[in-house]
Amino acid sequence: MELKPIAERFILHWGEMGSRWGVNRTVAQIHALLYLAGRPFDAEEIAETLGVARSNVSNSLKELQAWRLVRVVHLMGDRRDHFETSTDIWELFKVIVEGRRQREIDPTVGVLRECLSSDQLPGEDTGTEQRIRETLAFMEVMTAWVDEMMRLKPDTLMKTLGVGAKLSQFVRKK
């Protein structure tokens, strides 16, 4: 597949953004390619289209599968594995939020709770304890809010976000 200029620009940009998000550039580019194409690709086609090594594609696909952003599909008459991603941006957003929460937020909340229940806590500075409590409270409120937002249907979530933006603008003006 030959990429057209806009698709190429998007894929390259997504790769750059991926590296800023802590994701390998090729991983992000493969996801962008599958997202834009809206159809399954085999690993060889991905490697040829993006001009990257086949081994890099294989490793990147494994990472995308671990994130649950890419799934293996089989096509009639073709023995190779093909890979696809959802083209529903809200579904992708939810998968990414859930994955980041499991990898980053939940372990941090666990450590904060352990710190606050530790026998060594009384030996710490009061400022340290206070900031850990504040951080834990903040993270618990934010995760509860995210959980509620993720339960909404996409159209309801968009309306909620729009109302939230208008409310924020109104509060700032006062």
What does this protein structure show overall?
The protein is mainly alpha-helical. The protein has two domains: 5-84, Winged helix-like DNA-binding domain superfamily/Winged helix DNA-binding domain (Arc Repressor Mutant, subunit A, Orthogonal Bundle); 89-157. 72% of the residues lie in helices and 5% in strands. The chain has seven helices and three strands; from the N terminus they run H-H-E-H-H-E-E-H-H-H. It has a three-stranded antiparallel beta sheet. The relative contact order is 0.07.
> Mean pLDDT across all residues, rounded?
94
Number of helices: 7
Broad shape? extended
Fraction of helical residues: over 70%
Given helix and strand content, the structural type is mainly alpha
* Order of SSEs: HHEHHEEHHH
CATH homologous group name of the largest domain: Winged helix-like DNA-binding domain superfamily/Winged helix DNA-binding domain
CATH architecture of the largest domain, by name, is Orthogonal Bundle
Essential attributes:
174 residues, mainly alpha, Arc Repressor Mutant, subunit A, 2 domains, three-stranded antiparallel beta sheet, 3 strands, HTH-type transcriptional regulator, MJ1563, transcription regulation, transcription, WH-like_DNA-bd_sf
